[in-house]
Amino acid sequence: MKLSLQDTLKSLSRPQFSAALKGIRRGIEKESLRVDSGARLAETAHPASLGSALTHPYITTDYAEAQMEFITPVGTEAEETLEVLSDIHHHVYHHLGEELLWPVSMPCTVEAEDDIALARYGDSNLGKLKTLYRQGLKNRYGSMMQSVAGVHYNYSMPESFWPLWQKIKGDRQPLQDFISESYFGLIRNFLRLGWLVPYLFGASPAVGSTFLQHSRSKFLLEPFGRETYYLPKATSLRMSELGYNTKAQDNLAVSYNSLQMFVRGIRRAASQPNATFEKIGTKQCGEHWQLNANTLQDESELYAPIRPKRVPKTGEKLSGALQARGVEYVEVRSLDVNPYAEIGIDLEQVLFLDVFLTYCLLADSPTLSLQQQRTAKENLNKVAVSGRDLSLQLQDDENIRSMGSWAEELFTDLTEVARLLEHAYQKEGFLAAVNTQQQKLKNPELTPSARMLKDMAEQELELSELALNLAKKHRRTLLSNGYRQMQASEFTREAISSWLKQWELEVADS
User: Fold this and answer.
1) What is the DSSP string of 46-108?
2) Each residue of 267-276: pLDDT tens digit?
3) Please, what are the domains in the chain?
């Protein structure tokens, strides 16, 4: 049944339905490079006292040994999830000595690409496989690109929501099929409208000179000071072709129109030989250089601003987990690290993302052709490099329209969804978060990208100097916060348990 958004919101505002909206499930994954006091990449190993990066549930590494990743458990209270993320930061800082966590998405000063040591996970087959996968990423795309950091936001609706939503929609298919179909509808709407995220939250309008020296992109930037380059209207160079992106995947035929089409597309990409990557070879001088020469070494190599997810079983690929048990949640990957938040994201962002993703779920979501997906990607890139020009022209199906007018139209609906969530939760916050973001449409200088450039200009700072000042400030704040949701003893137990799990994997391997 096709309902207008107004009819949908009216139905969900009834007492028997609004309660089902409570309990949105969230998880946050936040990446940060470790740096020394001179804003240079740390050369030290991942601190052993924090546990095994291979098996620790909350504290691990991403691409590089010096690239930390913090993972919160899934929670239903936004404030508590952020407090857990703060606890992780607080605990980690007790084990870093004088090192700092880099508070921006674009990398710190790196003199040579080979200074970026690949993450190491021990001697188990699984650990070696993870490092080899990163070796492949280095040879395919370069280590500078892989060292770009971000925040991933995981979102799902409570189980109690789905039977009622299915009833409102008049749908009769098996419930999990309906859930998966609904999440793919959310994803399609996010692809259409996701350009709004880098506009509102993009915080990478500039990069350091060493990043440009080692980047494989030919993107042209303007000088800003001695060691910094930028684009005057950029919001998120991280999301542009200069950042965490690759043209090697531009022609992937991965469709988001159904679970079955997505699974077929991602499996095809992970099995089809790629002429460019075949030139690298899988081995050189007896050393492995990548897992394979396919377009994707592994399904996790797919670069996308949002992905359907299901927690896999041991040894299970994403496509297998999705095909067997359906979509469990979505992962938003287009968030820059917020340099002005101690933990890289704040409550206002979380509440706005809840509203935006709920809107994407509830609104009508027609199928997307592969050409429409490419157009959506072009819109995202335009906003990433020129988004603080509100007259920027974006393509909406067959129509060309200004980003500012399209966003204002969208905020009309987001305001109504925020009211719905406040009614369901019986508390304020959602509407204020939407209103605050809407002010950025009236004044682009309120965006974090503009704020960074303003601070650098007024204080006569290079990007590295601004980031270093913020890192030191955040360190002081986080160390003074104390634990809120978790305790030091819990982290100690997890560290010991993680080393035991790694040892068991290594012993069990033949």
Assistant:
1) PPGGG--TTT-SSEEE-SBTTEEEEEPPPBS-HHHHHHHHHHHHHHHHTTSTT-EE--SSS--
2) 999 999 999 9
3) 5-508 (3.30.590.20)
